Amino acid sequence: MNYKIVFSDIDGTLLNNKRELSPATIEAVKKLENKVPFVLISARMPAAMRHLQEELNISSLPIICYNGGLILADNEVMSTTEIPLEIVEKLSNWNPFNCHLSLYHKDEWYVPQVDQWTDREVNNTKVEPQVKKNYEVIKKWKKENKGAHKIMAMGEVSHIDEIRDYLEEQFPGQLHLYRSKDTYLEIAPKSISKFTAIELLLKEFYKLTPQDAVAIGDNYNDVEMLKNVGYGVAVGNAREECKEVAQTVCEKSIEDGVAKVLAKIFQH
């Protein structure tokens, strides 16, 4: 099959053990230039993806952020799906453990205070947040008529369990609750996913079908796209759920798995 586009997850898929792009990965992506678009697709905010685009020489290409909640093409918003502010406000007001709630909208990232969770995310994403209490952000967004592209709850495992249970009970069927690790809960609108974003971008921007696409990933939020594109690739360190639906399993992210599988697929 002559695949025409590649979608790649970032964390756990594209980056090495220093959370950086390896020279081999950069070289492999650059070999696709002007032939096969290489589109980044992540739970990250745009600002945490652009520096990677620059290194890969793909800054002119679209990006899919917030697990499909925001699609940017030609530096314009092609699609945006936000968590209603009333849900953000109810969670913020309820939060009995004073759990860290990071609030995101497009390139805005607000943290309630600088703590270990803030420091970890800054290290992971190379983006600096603004410090503002949740209620202040909500007040600001009410005036600006904005919702949240993502809420990231970070804290003790038992606290994250309770936040998940609260949201499932209060807002059934309205939210994606994605546990990227035991101490993290990424909260997004239920109506979107990485695959719904891929479908939209392919149809509206590239005039291609999912069968024309390669997708590469490692985690629960990648399963749907790996299952539904033409060629799904799970990296060697991926969750078993990803490996089960993928057409192939390549080397681990820290072993240049993406670079090696691109060379095999596109024979360069």
The structure class reads: alpha/beta
Distance between the termini: 15 Å
DSSP summary: helix tally: 10
Number of strands: 14
- Residue ranges: pLDDT <50 for 5 or more in a row? none
Describe the biggest sheet? 6 strands, mixed
What does it look like?
The chain is of the alpha/beta class and 268 residues long. It has helices spanning 23-30, 47-56, 85-94, 116-125, 134-144, 157-170, 194-206, 223-228, 240-245, 257-266; strands at residues 5-8, 38-40, 63-65, 70-73, 76-80, 100-105, 108-111, 130-131, 150-154, 175-181, 184-189, 213-217, 231-234, 248-249.
Key terms:
268 residues, globular, single chain, 10 helices, six-stranded mixed beta sheet, alpha/beta, five-stranded parallel beta sheet
Quick recap of the structure?
By secondary structure, the chain is α/β, with parallel strands linked by helices. 37% of the residues lie in helices and 22% in strands.
Outline the fold blueprint:
Layout: E1 5-8, H1 23-30, E2 38-40, H2 47-56, E3 63-65, E4 70-73, E5 76-80, H3 85-94, E6 100-105, E7 108-111, H4 116-125, E8 130-131, H5 134-144, E9 150-154, H6 157-170, E10 175-181, E11 184-189, H7 194-206, E12 213-217, H8 223-228, E13 231-234, H9 240-245, E14 248-249, H10 257-266
Helix pairs in contact: 1-10, 3-5
